[in-house]
Amino acid sequence: MKRIVITGANAGIGLATAKFLAPQNELILVCRTQRKGETAAASIRLIAPRTPVTVLPVDLHDFASVQLAAMHIQSKFDSIDVLINNAGYYPKRIEYIGQTEKTLYASHLGHMLLTLLLLPTLEMAAEPRIINVSSALHWRGNAQHFFRQIPGLSTFQAYADAKLANILFTMALNQKMESRVRAFALHPGVVATNFDRDIRGFFKFLIEAAKPLFYLTPEQGAATSVYLANAPTSAIQAAKACYFANSRPTQIQNAGATAANADDLWQRSYEVLLPHLSQAATI
Ligand SMILES: NC(=O)c1ccc[n+]([C@@H]2O[C@H](COP(=O)([O-])OP(=O)(O)OC[C@H]3O[C@@H](n4cnc5c(N)ncnc54)[C@H](OP(=O)(O)O)[C@@H]3O)[C@@H](O)[C@H]2O)c1
Question: What is the pTM of this model?
Answer without folding.
Answer: 0.96
